[in-house]
Design goal:
alpha/beta, Aldehyde Dehydrogenase, Chain A, domain 1, Aldehyde Dehydrogenase, Chain A, domain 2, seven-stranded mixed β-sheet, 17 helices
């Protein structure tokens, strides 16, 4: 069966490209693989193979890191004028826009998310590239007060060889959170996408070559988690940025400690969505739905714990179920789809096991929306109510379209329940009461708090978590700290040879 048979809605050009991927034919030498061993990448909406993606072996991984080090050492990128790097990143953004429809389709079928969601993702890619292109010429140092015989200053330099390990739920946007600032500040980077959704990253690497980014500055290694483990264990790495599970994040920390390496971790979440009686309930319903059903709940900041003030809990749940009943759950390329499948059978089974266990514990289970497919890894939007707050369904990341519900009677109780999990990535607050949002935001232990909205991302907004959700920040000016290092320069200007 050809790829066109499997997905008749994609273009012949894209089908040809996918077949080239299966043959290990890439238009850039910076995808480190020989094509000798491959694994199938599936469309989660049908279970059919999109491409057989070659796996990088240990030699490929080591070679990619050596190429990145050589690119740093000879200055082919880091020592270019800032406006040279700016122009290259702007060209790259323009190429993403040129191939927008292709990238949207790839991101949709690779992850299962509806095309409309994938379009927002690719638009975000262009925003992030352009934002950090602007930063190329904006990095500054400082003059430091010192004894009069000395002149002291700081400058910012590239960190060096960076590694980016990215997840399957937002493959290209999250790659941009790492790659765009790394390149803007003169670093080289080796990226490893999730084996479940690597296709848009492969396509993007070919665009990097077309944009004129020198050989070795951006490289890609491919394959399962073992490839990532090999990558972070390589000598010669100066910075690791990882987005994914808390378990894997801990393993990366251990590996990084072997040759102390700068690390940023964006890990799991169990984000509370708090609704007060004073809120515009209809607006809150739409926000809560978007916060959990987007990408079938497979979002690190998914608002997967709904906390509703007791006096409005029942009416709010009724409104939420009615709103969600309108959801068309279907294939990514069906323009009617408002929610797609889960990424894999394994993820589906995990979510189903949580629902089953909750039901055994006496929970009330409500499903909504309509699944319009007899194949694929689909799960209807599911609401779990009636469990104690300590139950695993409330405490552990499910990473699916599953929402747990609890209630509260006061601000302090809401904050206590919201902060009761090991995670601290994000939170949402819905209220129209003066001062309440600010009080709650201060009480919540989360890296981001959204008020009367949810899930807003922008290149200017720093993002990251607390507690088991990781540390370090991506996006915004925070990336200057993440992808540069400060050098202090002290000169004896009195001519006496200072001590």
């Amino acid at each position: 069966m050809t790829i066109t048979d499997a997905l008749p809605l994609i273009s012949p050009t894209l089908a040809s490209w996918l077949n080239d991927v299966s043959r290990g034919k890439f238009s850039t030498p910076d995808i480190a693989t020989s094509g000798e061993i491959a694994y199938p990448v599936l469309d989660p909406g049908t279970g059919r193979t999109l491409a057989n993606v070659p796996i990088s072996n240990s030699d490929h991984v080591a070679r990619a890191v050596r190429k990145a080090r050589a690119a740093m050492d000879d200055g082919r990128w880091s020592e270019q004028d800032p406006d040279y790097r700016e122009a290259a990143l702007l060209r790259l953004a323009a190429l993403v826009e040129r191939d927008f429809d292709t990238l949207v389709t790839l991101e949709a079928v690779d992850t299962g998310k509806p095309r409309a969601e994938a379009a927002l993702d690719i638009h975000e890619v262009t925003l992030v590239l352009r934002y950090y292109a602007g930063w190329c010429t904006k990095v500054t140092g400082s003059t430091i007060a010192a004894p009069r015989q000395f002149a002291a200053q700081t400058i910012r330099e590239a960190v060096g060889v960076c590694v980016a390990i990215t997840p399957w739920n937002y493959p290209l946007p999250i790659l941009m959170y790492k790659l765009a600032p790394a390149l803007a500040f003169g670093n080289s980077i080796v990226a490893k996408p999730s084996e479940l959704a690597p296709l848009s990253s492969i396509y993007f690497l070919e665009l990097c070559s077309e944009a004129g980014i020198p050989d070795g500055v951006v490289s890609l290694v491919l394959g399962p988690g073992e490839v990532g483990a090999d990558l972070v264990s390589q000598p010669g790495i100066d910075k690791i940025s990882f987005t994914g599970s808390t378990t894997t994040g801990k393993a990366i920390m251990r590996a990084a400690a072997e040759h102390p390496t700068k690390v940023t971790l964006e890990l799991g979440g169990k984000s509370p969505h708090i609704v007060f009686a004073s809120a515009d309930l209809d607006a809150a319903v739409a926000g809560v739905a978007a916060g959990i059903w987007t990408n079938a709940g497979q979002v690190c900041v998914a608002g997967s714990r709904l906390l509703v003030e007791e006096s409005v809990k029942e009416i709010f749940i009724q409104k939420l179920v009615a709103f969600t009943d309108e959801y068309h759950v279907g294939h990514a390329l069906d323009d009617r789809s408002m929610m797609g499948p889960m990424i894999s059978a394994r993820q589906l089974e995990k979510a189903q096991a949580t629902i089953t266990e909750a039901q055994k514990s006496g929970a009330r289970i409500t499903t909504a929306g309509t699944v319009h497919s007899e194949v694929g890894t689909f799960l209807a939007p599911t609401i779990i109510d009636g469990l104690d707050g300590s139950h695993a369904a409330h405490q552990e990341e499910i990473f699916g379209p599953v929402l747990t519900v609890d209630s509260f009677g006061s601000e302090d109780e809401a904050a206590t329940r919201a902060n009761s999990t090991p995670f601290g990535l994000a939170a949402g607050v819905w209220t129209d009461a003066a001062g309440q949002s600010t009080r709650m935001a201060r009480k919540l232990n989360a890296g981001t708090v959204w008020v009367n909205t949810y899930g807003v991302f922008h290149p200017t907004l720093p993002f990251g978590g607390t507690k088991a959700s990781g540390f370090g920040r991506e996006l915004g000016e925070s990336a200057v700290e993440a992808y540069t290092q400060t050098k202090t320069i002290v000169e004896d200007i009195a001519g006496r040879g200072g001590e």
